[in-house]
Input
Amino acid sequence: MLALILFYIFATFLVAGAFGVITARNPVYSALFLVFSFINSAAIWLLIEAEFLAIVLVLVYVGAVMVLFLFVVMMLDINLAELRSGFTRFAWLGWLTALAVIAEIIGVVWRHGLGAIDVNTDFASEPANYSNTLQLGKVLYTRYAYPFELAAVLLVVALVAAIALTLRHRPGLKSQDASRQVAVRARDRLRIVKTPAEKRP
Output
């Protein structure tokens, strides 16, 4: 009974945080609402005894990805007035996308009969020596090894893109040109000067 009450509390906070993400006028506030949603999602993971996923959600998404996202948002110096000016032009596209997502969710629930699940039934308890981390690692590095590597590559590309977007070329800034450094020749940088020896008086 306590777990069910906690689930409804965290689920309510999660929905409220997700609503704040899409309604906040400031992108920094949206990112903070997203952090709040991630934390509540981690609490729900803990309720179903998925401790590893809850810790990963907090450490990876809240502790790394969202911090990076906050820095990118603050360093990009986004002009909010300019963004809001073109919002109404593409509002219809947003509504169509939202309706399509809602229709897909309803279709999945209706097709698989997820509405017939009894939410009051307790989850089956695992034995004491059961390890979520071990089972997840077996699946992740065997069946889903290639999607896992692809996700890692995409994260690296996103990180490089974020750095490239925030890079500003200022006058007088000293930067390295790797191609010129590699192509340099010794005779262009080194000059040997021969000086005649002098006799002491």
User: Anything to note?
Assistant: The chain has a mean pLDDT of 79.
